[in-house]
Design a protein that fits this description.
Blueprint: H1 3-18, H2 65-70, H3 75-87, H4 91-104, H5 111-124, H6 128-141, H7 145-160, H8 164-175, H9 182-198, H10 202-220, H11 228-247, H12 257-283, H13 287-310, H14 319-332, H15 334-354, H16 359-380
Helix pairs in contact: 1-12, 1-14, 3-4, 4-5, 5-6, 5-7, 6-7, 7-8, 8-9, 9-10, 9-11, 10-11, 11-12, 11-13, 12-13, 13-15, 13-16, 15-16
Amino acid sequence: MTLRRSASLLASGLLLACATAGAPRRGAPAAPGQPAAATTAPAIPPAPAAPPRITYPPEEVKASPTDVELEGKNDEELFAIGTAAYGAGEYARAAAAFARLVDRYPSSRHEAAALFDAGLAYQHLEEWRLALERFRALERKYEGPDALEASFKIADCLYYLHELPEAHARLEEILRREGLDPTLRIRALAQRGVLELEAGKAEEAERSFRLALGAWQGASEEERLDPYYPSLAQYYLGETYRTWFRALPLDPSTGDEARLRQDLEHKAEMLLSAQGHYLRAIRMGDDRWAVAAGFRIGELYDELRKQLLEAPLPPGLDAEHAAAYRAELRRRVRVLAAKAITAYEQTIARASRTGVDDLRFLADAQASLSRLEAALAEDAEPPRT
């Protein structure tokens, strides 16, 4: 395989992509110079000395300012304090007020709302076990929309506690309910798919996401639905294909030209499928998922470029030809860098325009953009003599 042909073949995927202790001793030996104890009758050991008395200072319990504030308040006052604190983003104070109401006034007319709001406040504090306790209590004692929402919140808490099978089972229970509202069915299917994908069950996850999108399309004929969970399903369909894209190897060192071409085509197909779902997520109109999807599109091309550049060399190249091969390959993958730069720029612009400030994506997008721009500028410099 010629040098140019090897680099050309490896980069041909670009065209496709662009489209214990012992027992204690019973007695002590006689002291030196003293006779041993008589053997005719056992000696009566002296009474053991009383252990020294250990005294501890009384434990000092300090009441927090919130405890002082809430002491003596009735349920109406506690509910008002909790509601105001939650609205002001003071989630620890809100959780304390709502929890005290529930614990001290279980017959209050505010109990159901306080259980739910205490769970929400604990979620903001990432106190998932405490939130789970409150949502479960609400689900056990009450019925209706808030109790059903508590079921979803239970699944959320179990997810963040890394108890994925339990979270999956809870979503299955929701999906078995008769007369479930289409919006809630879409939500449960989409969230089930995320759990399946994180559990390594990509095929099952794909099915759940497609069921969610099918339910959304059917219900959209009757009414306009919030795009958040359908966008989530489209985004994670893209994530499913991205998982498969990343798992496909590229190894020119085998010298098997036909196998390399097949691997490139397959990898390009997975890239295009993932990109298609990300683009659909962008067009669905939820800005948060649009920003996430735009970042992933840039990352797809960025990663393909990296994999091509870091792939093993074809066999039989000496140092001179290996350097020439790498230079030719860098020239050919510039198109991937350009596509990634465009996607990162569009993502950052949309986030700025819509007020999305998700640092999980934006910080990485800006860092990747700077890195690729520097790489293109370096490749464009004339060789030094």
